[in-house]
């Protein structure tokens, strides 16, 4: 099997968490299936990330990019007490180690009594429990 763009896209679509890849100009370049479903009508490929994040987040993102350029990999961003998610800034590097973009990774806790339940549309359950 040849690993091409279609195969890589299928792999990323199988991942149950959202992936919104943003380039160095903060332009959304890729969204996996989960991201398209979760952010439907709010986030669009080709648009600025700041159409859905306010401009006040830009200095924080630029600081994460500086740290990534200095060699750091995934960085803890924040614990969201409302949703129970830990959020991480994840730089994406090319084969030479140059940061070409980033995405934010969310990590959500699961029900300790039922760890076998798939992640699936976790944000739907999260939203219900965050109210």
Secondary-structure map with pairings?
Blueprint: H1 5-14, E1 20-23, E2 28-31, H2 33-38, H3 58-69, E3 75-80, E4 85-93, E5 99-107, H4 122-130
Provide an overview of this structure.
With 131 residues, the chain is of the alpha+beta class. The protein has one domain: Beta-Lactamase, CATH 3.30.450.20. The protein is 28% helix and 24% strand. It has 4 helices and 5 strands. Strands 2-1-5-4-3 form a 5-stranded antiparallel β-sheet. The longest helix has 12 residues. The mean pLDDT is 86.
Q: Tally of extended strands?
A: 5
Helicity range of the residues? Answer: 25-40%
Q: Using the coordinates above, name the CATH class.
A: Alpha Beta
Overall geometric form: globular
* CATH architecture type: 2-Layer Sandwich
Assign the structural class, choosing from mainly alpha, mainly beta, alpha/beta, alpha+beta, or little secondary structure.
Answer: alpha+beta
In total, the number of domains comes to 1
Strand content: 15-25%
Order of helix and strand elements from N to C terminus: HEEHHEEEH
Instruction: Give the end-to-end Cα distance, rounded to a whole number of Å.
Output: 46 Å
Helix count?
Answer: 4
| Strand ordering within the main sheet | 2-1-5-4-3
Q: Taking Cα atoms only, what radius of gyration do you get, to the nearest Å?
A: 16 Å
């Amino acid at each position: 099997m040849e690993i091409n763009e279609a195969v890589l896209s299928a792999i990323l679509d199988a991942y149950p968490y959202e992936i919104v890849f943003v380039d160095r100009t903060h332009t959304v370049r890729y969204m996996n299936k989960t991201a398209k479903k979760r952010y439907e009508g709010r986030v669009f490929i080709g648009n600025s990330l700041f159409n859905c994040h306010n401009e006040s987040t830009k200095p924080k993102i630029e600081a994460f990019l500086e740290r990534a350029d200095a060699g750091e990999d995934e960085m803890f961003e924040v614990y969201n007490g409302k949703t129970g998610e830990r959020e991480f800034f994840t730089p994406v590097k090319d084969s030479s180690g140059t940061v070409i973009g980033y995405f934010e990774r969310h990590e959500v806790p699961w029900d300790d009594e039922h760890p076998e339940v798939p992640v699936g549309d976790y944000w739907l359950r999260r939203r219900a429990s965050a109210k």
